[in-house]
Each structure stands twice: as structure tokens, then as C-alpha cells.
Amino acid sequence: MLLLILLAFGWPVVPPSVSRPFDPPAERWLSGHRGVDLAGAPASPVRSAGPGTVLFAGLVAGRGVVSVAHAGGLRTTYEPVTASVSVGEVVARGDPLGRLQPGHPGCPAAACLHWGLRRGPLYLDPLALLGLGRVRLLPVDQRR
Fold it and tell me: pTM to 2 decimals?
């Protein structure tokens, strides 16, 4: 199963450069960094990390966000992005979702993509999709 996941997913921006790693809080209600920031150039393409269906493409608190549902109950999010996709659109790995908007709090570059991964309410390290980052194995019957 892990090998299939690794083959199905790729970097959402190229070239990849992690500027801030996944740093989840000790408790769900505490602050933390629930994704990774990838440095990039303003207006550069943001691509779907894997095959799926666009669940959301629009503004959240004034920032462009795209969310994609993947097999196995996984959901990736991308922000800040000027979306070029619509809700319900089916995307493949590498398909463009939109363009990276400049600025992102704490970003050392002109633009950073905040890339998130969730399974239900549980935030996961998106780098695990690429065989990088921390991997957390859960029992098959555990639903969070």
C-alpha cells in the first residue's frame, strides 16, 4: 500500500524547497504548523500532488485555497493559490490547480505554498506522501 501511495503522489511545486516543516501541536486545540511550506516564485504553477477530485476552490479569510480529495480518505490543501480549477473537477497527479500567490506569513521567499494533508480530522505530514517526513501508522479500522 505504501509503495502505491509513493507512486501516486509528487511535489505540488517545482523545484521543491521546504522552508518550514510539519510541526503539529501536542494537542489538537493548540497552535502548530499543520502542513509544510514550500518556497516558490509568485505566479508559478501549483499542481495537484496526486489524483483526486477538487472539493474546494475559493477564498478562505481572503486567501485563495484549493482542496483535493484523494483515495483512502486523504485530502490535500494548497494555499495561497489563485485557482484555475472548479469544485467537482477530476485531476491527475501534476495537473495544474492554479498559480501561487505572493506572500505567506513566515515565508523567507517571495512566495510560499502551504501544503496540507488530512485524513478526516487528523492532520498528517504531506511529505509522507513522497516517502519523506514522519510516517504514522494507524490500525486499519481506526477512523479519525
Answer: 0.84
